[in-house]
Structures are given as C-alpha cells and as structure tokens.
Design a protein that fits this description.
With 111 residues, the protein is mainly beta. It has one helix spanning 36-47; strands spanning 5-12, 22-29, 68-71, 74-77, 87-91, 97-99, 102-103. The longest helix has 12 residues, at 36-47. The protein is globular, with a radius of gyration of 14 Å. It starts with a strand and ends in an 8-residue tail after the last strand.
Amino acid sequence: MTAGKITARVFRLDPSVDKESRYQDYEVPFEQGMSAMDVLDYIYQNLDSTLAYYDHAGCALGICARCTGRINGKAGLFCQVPVEGDLTLEPISSSRVLKDLVCEKKQMPSV
C-alpha cells in the first residue's frame, strides 16, 4: 500500500460487448475504516461511472446481501468487509454475470 492509497483490482465484464472478462486496476485514496463498498463508490463517483455493482440506500447494514461478492478470493458483503490494503473485487459467480459485479440472482420456484 502506497502512502494513503490502495489499488483496487476490479473484475469487468459486459457480456453484450466483451468476449472475455478482464480486471481493471484503480488507485483509490485509503481511509481507515472504509469498506469495499466505499472503494466501489469512490471508483464510480470519481474514476469510472461505467462500473456496475449493487449499491442502494440500505447498504452498509449487512441485511439484504445484494452486495455479496468475492473480496480477495473470499465471499463477503462489499458493504461489510473492511479494507486493510490492496484488494481484488469479483462477482460471487462469474458464470451468471449481467455486468461487472452484478450477477443474475437465482429465482425462487413458484408455488
């Protein structure tokens, strides 16, 4: 980690355009106590507004689990996992990617 900055390596894929997934690196200012969601918000708001991920007003509570993904290879909620240095952010399943970190959710069977 460089003085006050981290590198976030983010999985990118738009199946309507891309033939293969790729990773894109972003340099993000580091602040003690920030979550992986804070990193994604910074990227979206300041560096790349094309990034797709789940974010909504209720996030940071860890209740809905919409922001489930892989942080440094381990499953977790982007809104709950604290950042301690460089990180890699990936969708929970690369086989159901709608775009970037947004995955198709399995539908519940109808009764």
